[in-house]
Specification:
The protein has 339 residues and is an alpha/beta fold. The chain has 13 helices and 12 strands. The relative contact order is 0.13.
Amino acid sequence: MIRGNWRSPNFLVGGLGIFPKVAHAARSMAADGVDHVHCHFANHPALAGWLIGRLTGVPYSFTAHGSDLHVDRTMLPTKVAEAAFTVTISDDNRRLIETTCGPTAAGRVEVIHCGVDPAVFPVPERPADGPLRIVAVGTLHEVKGQTHLIEACRRLVADGRAVRCRIVGEGVDRPRLTVQIEAASLADVVTLVGQLTADRVTAELIDADVLVAPSVPTRGGKREGIPVVLMEAMATGLPVVASRLSGIPELVEDGVSGLLVPAGDPAALAEALATLAEDPALRRRLGIAGRATILRDFDVTASAARLADRIVAAFPADGTARAPRSADDDGAPVRGAVA
């Protein structure tokens, strides 16, 4: 573990921090007859799975999401090579993993989208008139791009358009965003709502005319995968405007199930919002197509079933499971059945 992570202070310190807990968990798993470990995120969680595999021979797999890949891919080729299989949430991520890992990743990475439960999201009738009600949901952080949404609202107001924007979330950028709102004289237009419970976020989506996800890559290389809030909004039949970035175009088809704009371009964002403000029928059409996309490709029940099936498939028909070979592994089979 030290040899594989010494070039990355974050991964090395994190690995040393989790090692005692992982060693204890590994002993407990071996004693309880655990047959497989699946880890979410390619950084420290996947490292934990790799450690458990090395300590016990219990096979592991992991799902790579977004910023766990984009900022630091230390030891990723080893994790992929020794995993029973690797999942990621977008084709964009799959290409990144395969480029990073080379032949190691050939045929070992598959895409299983994240999803939401459409049944918990009502589809309301939204009014066609009145100010355009905009909502954005996410941590107040550079990667979420709220500063570009505020600038887009300034442009819309300067053009004489009636808009209201509610930004849900909390984070380190609140002071900077507050100053930006005040400097633009948008206190009556843009509201920093703060952090809300899941039920209240859903209520915000129901009361809005459009959700905006103006994601951008950060200066440190962080970027989003496919924001779940886009799926939640689309599940309510809410039209969305999002950045053409990472795996987002795999969810939002521009002009069909939403509108895509270049990341970090408030002028393009304002233009897209102006288009929606002028065309309630377009808003409705995009919302209907967006919900259909969720039902077809981003239903969490179907995604979870695919992942469960993939774990089951890792076990041979005779009921044995074999940990992937490593340099110091004798390849002994691990007995077990899938619970």
